[in-house]
Specification:
This protein has about 130 residues and is α+β, with helices and mostly antiparallel strands. Helix content is about 20%, strand content about 25%. The protein is built from three helices and five strands. Strand 1 and strand 2 form a beta hairpin.
Length: about 130
């Protein structure tokens, strides 16, 4: 399947919490390589919409179709108590990149001629002789 055939389509999505309708007939199409920003007042349904698009919550009515069905939609939940982090640090932590970087930290004794701790991605590939 070519990347141009990837899509996320929401049609007439309705979500309510008790008597309060948060999303009422929302429809949108997100094509390949598209970034979407959702802006609105507190309680307008931004998080509800994004959670539905990511497949975390099902709408009460309407459809959300991912093409192909295995299409993954990224969603980072709100963490208001983490305001000391930069956006890059948040994404690295929440996506697993920070944990992967920590795993590739090695003791210098494993790599001749390198300081006590080094992050491989900071050095050119040809600059490190592993000597295995």
């Amino acid at each position: 399947m070519s990347p141009s055939s990837f899509a996320l389509v929401a049609t007439d999505v309705v979500t309510a919490f008790g008597a309060h309708t948060v999303l009422d007939g929302v429809s949108l199409t997100v094509g390949p390589a598209t970034c979407v920003g959702v802006v609105g007042a507190n309680g307008a349904g931004k998080t509800t919409l994004l959670r539905a698009l990511a497949g975390l919550d099902a709408p009460d009515r309407g459809r959300i179709v991912r093409t192909p069905p295995t299409l993954r939609v990224g969603y980072l939940s709100q963490e208001p108590d983490r305001c000391e982090e930069s956006v890059g640090e948040l994404l690295a932590r929440r996506s697993g990149v920070a944990a992967a970087e920590a795993e590739i930290m090695v003791e210098g004794s494993c790599i001749p001629g390198v300081g006590t701790r080094v992050l491989f991605r900071q050095r050119p590939c040809g600059a490190i002789e592993l000597g295995f």
